[in-house]
Amino acid sequence: EEEEEEEAEETKPDPLHQLILHFSRTALTEKSKLEVDHLYMSYADIMAKSCHIQEEGGEEEDEEGVELTFEEKEMEKQRLLYQQSRLHSRGAAEMVLQMISACKGEQGAMVSSTLKLGISILNGGNCEVQQKMLDYLKEKRDIGFFQSVQALMQTCSVLDLNAFERQNKAEGLGMVTEDGTIIKRESGEKVMSDDEFTQDLFRFLQLLCEGHNNDFQNYLRTQTGNTTTINIIICTVDYLLRLQESVSDFYWYYSGKDVVDEPGKRNFSKAMAVAKQVFNSLTEYIQGPCTGNQQSLAHSRLWDAVVGFLHIFAHMMMKLAQDSSQIELLKELLDLQKDMVVMLLSLLEGNVVNGTIAKQMVDMLVESSSNVEMILKFFDMFLKLKDIVASDAFKDYVTDPRGLISKKDFQKAMDSQKQYTPSEIQFLLSCSEADENEMINYEEFANRFQEPAKDIGFNIAVLLTNLSEHVPHDTRLQNFLELAESILTYFQPFLGRIEIMGASKKIERIYFEISEANKTQWEMPQVKESKRQFIFDVVNEGGESEKMELFVNFCEDTIFEMQIASKISETDEGEKSEDEDEEGENVEGMEAEKISSAAEAPSAVAAFLSSIVDFFKIFTFKNIRKKYRKIKKMTIKEMVMALVTFFWTLFVGILQFIYSICSGFFMIVWNTLFGGGLVEGAKHLTVTELLASMPDPTQDEVHADLPDISKAEVEEMAVQSEFEDQAKEEETSETSDAKRESGQFRMSSPESNLGLGDIVESASVEPPTPEGTPPSFRKIRQQIEAQVETKVEDPLQAEAEKADTENGEKAEKDIKEKEVLEQPEVGGEKAEGEGEKGEGEKGEGEKGEGEKGEEGEKEQEPTLAKRVRKKAKQESKKEEPEAVMEFWNEFENYKTKLLNYLSRNFYNLRFLALFVAFAINFILLFYKVSQLEDEEDFEGTGLEDDMINAGFGNGNGNGDEEEEEEDEDSLVYFVLEESTGYMAPTLKALSILHTLLSFLCIIGYNYLKVPLVIFKREKELARKLEFDGLYITEQPADDDIKGQWDRLVLNTPSFPHNYWDKFVKRKVLDKYGDIYGRDRIAELLGMDMSALDVTVPQEKKPAADNSVLSWITSLDIKYQIWKFGVIFTDNSFLYLCWYMLMSALGHYNNFFFAAHLLDIAMGVKTLRTILSSVTHNGKQLMMTVGLLAVVVYLYTVVAFNFFRKFYNKSEDEDDPDMKCDDMMTCYLFHMYVGVRAGGGIGDEIEDPAGDEYELYRVVFDITFFFFVIVILLAIIQGLIIDAFGELRDQQEQVKEDMETKCFICGIGSDYFDTTPHGFETHTLEEHNLANYMFFLMYLINKDETEHTGQESYVWKMYQERCWDFFPAGDCFRKQYEDQLG
Fold this sequence. Notes:
This protein is 70% helix and 2% strand. It starts with a helix and ends with a helix.
């Protein structure tokens, strides 16, 4: 049954295929013209939208502001390819061609929908769809398609000036209503109404050749096998010429007007968008290069169209730049100019010296020389403008701190620079935009034109450079080069060029842009070190292929290292913006200080505290960083002047401080003794004032539970300002009410204990009410309650009021709580007070009934307090996580900056640590050995701790052990001998500093070099997987620890993490899956097959969870274990760990710091070579030492058996010291003494003269001397010396090769030095190592669909790991030696 179901499914027809087949038959049966089919248009739109996943993703990305990762973009691309394959496999590609052929060259909605569908299935340059369309056209010999395309191009409209004028005139005469005009503009535009259709047509033709499809490029020019041939290339040029002429007509129409009005802008924008698409199509026709299409264009009227556009560019740029409202139109014009220059560069692809196309291009430039000169002058003016306005000489004329300058000062500043002519200065002033005060924002003005000028100016520089090298002896071109000298000079540092062996086996030159950031990163110390090591390791390698393989690996590693350098580097723009922010903050702070000082004079204590706070603010991280940047920008002279000024200011400050102290003390004494101030003050002091200032001891009981009025006053100050207007209105009534309430309170409470302060009528402190609050405060509280109730009822109240009342609510909350606690205690007294108070309040008109009002207020108070408390809790809950997140974000920010700083200064930290190690060891030279009979001699000297920490001679320094060992008379100590007393604390401080530096070096290395180590290992493993089939076709050896360890990371989801090819696992699966089974390989690589299914829509990732638990669960444990294994087998990391360990042990015994002096051998290249000489022949050296040990052992056996009596080393005959009574002692004696003796073992034992074994001893001694001393030790010395000589020769050979032979082509300097500086020019400009690396970086970062023909060729060879594009043994100069002269 299952088999029958499968067969039924297989025989079931595909609805989509049937639908496409139906539409195809309809197109093929149309004889006269294509009828409108709404069903077809609907389905065509649906199918087109199904292939727009990538574009929709881009829109979503823009809307949400979330950038897609590389993996997500690749998945979108795979899904797009799947949808395109799903359509073209069912005949959609053929249907598009049939529909276009059936339209017979008539525009309409059917053709428009067909073009959009064709664009969708070809989007991204789908090679399969291209090939299917080409096969169909060749097989069917369908000339109707090309005839329809030709007719469609002829019917495509251009700008019609007559229709435009008629339309404007009709609108001006009022022949149409305003509403009718709007409808006409939107849906019935007469001028170039089919601009969208025209763009779709040329976009479709462009996509047919996308990816440099040479077969389709040639077929568009010549339909081989057809009876009729239509050259689509020429048809495109014909339309471009028509379009150019119409744009020229519009330009002349507006040339007499000051500005281009809105209808003119709209029509210019339409024409420029269409022209942009036509130039892009022409570029795709010829890139590759397609020489046939290049020649076809060269012999067409393309040059006339280009000359016309150059005229439009030259004059419209000057016109549009002078009005800020025309800037958008100017940018569109510059974009069009950029695309035209790219098309001209594509014409020169694969060009030869003195080629036809290059000469024709020079002729075209000469024909429009005046226009080209205007364009060059335009870009020259705005390219150097930014550097000029940033100069100090220009800023001397800027007086406004806001960055504004008057037109008059701007003209004077430009005149002083001597860079512009007076007419150019007037043009710049006309381009600037001044405010109502005739002031110009010069920075904004310079930036407005800088980026467009750089983009197009670079392409123009590339075009002129290319022409100058392919047409070397044309005097007309030299004139243009002289005019463009400043532009060429400006872009010279960023213009990279390399030479490759092209597909035609000819040397071709490629030009590309090098960013300033990349050039800066290339000069980083870590990159320089990698470059030096690579050149030393590679220059003497074998063949060219192996050398180029290593060179490309070095380029990949360097690119990754430069990416790390870009991450850890601080950009100048960021520093400038931060400096500007800091300056802005300082200005705001100064203004705030002025305002606050004007508002109220601070007290002496407050001024003193603020001065202390300001002093500590100097040492904040932000301020220190700002001062550090300022110091970096200072010259030596400025630094010296700053130091002198600092010490002078410090000296003057000390003198002023001493003077202030002395004068203040003198004034106090004088005023106290002779001023009479105390006596006069006592005379005017009244009893009332004295009593009012005294504390009231009788009110302790009453006031014990009352709130602190002074504290409440302070807290209520901010709240009271909110009700300032109401308080002013009721000020008089409040005063009288307060007095009356005060009297009533005292009368109604005769039982209360009255103090002295209550009797005095002039007491200024308001008495508390029964609720414990002063009446004025109760009024303020009532106002607060009303405000809080209003806020509760109105949830849409502005957030600004919340901040104003927050402090008031907190104070009110404290008062309410205390009132609630006091209510049960006061009882009857409260009731009386309330009644009397109610009567008083009746008179005031605040409440209808006194007691009821008070009871109502009492009932509302707990509810209101709860409400306020609840709201405060909610606000605190909201503020707490925000504050925590802000703190952690700030912490992460500073942590990243610190780690980046350590990474950037890793080599400086190493040098500083070495310097500190030298300082420590210098202090260690002052240690001496001291023997003391008793430890009591140390008491009171302060050296006990130093002796214990420094160490001791006999191996123990503890008091207990000294008491136990009675035989020891004294102990030996290491004592620091000094008379100053500063060396011991200095030694401790330096020790701590060195340990800290060692730890920071490990951190810096972890962020600077460890990612590169992981990248190299991942790249090596990925390459072995993809190209060698490791772990699939073959397994690593059992003793290959590295290979077995790498097996651990294969099936982890994080691999590869640092390596940029994230889809290497998928490539391996596609390459070996059919042979070895996809499931088996997917299991080996840890791949989820369901995740590879592009038919399943990708779900959006949930919001990132920053909790610790989610971080732990998302951690890839196996990958981290593998990563730690790789790190801890890195030699440099292990060396730094050893360095750190020795530094830590130095705190136990300072003499451990002596080991750090060996770091000088690691840091100095010459000393590193000496160390390498020992390890260079390490295996042979160890084998020779092993042989030496064996030979000495054989002699030990002979001596032990026959010559023991000669090994007495004691001079006392009664107590002999026999060195050969046991085998171990005898062997060690031979190794230690015999090998070191100049004459062998015979020099160290007794003379055999007269002994019965004399002859045997002579043989024994001579053979030991000959074999051990003369041969084996000489071999060991020879190995070390030969290794040193070999390394030295290798370094000299590397230096000689780099100075006399090109690394890329291998040609010697003798060939190039026939011209002055020929070899230097060749290695720095033509075959520069850095430029090849920059070019590879340029290709990796560039979208494949935007590659030129040469770039696509190199990229394809690179992906196949084929290095034939390197010009080994040849160069451009050698190939065209005759033409170059």
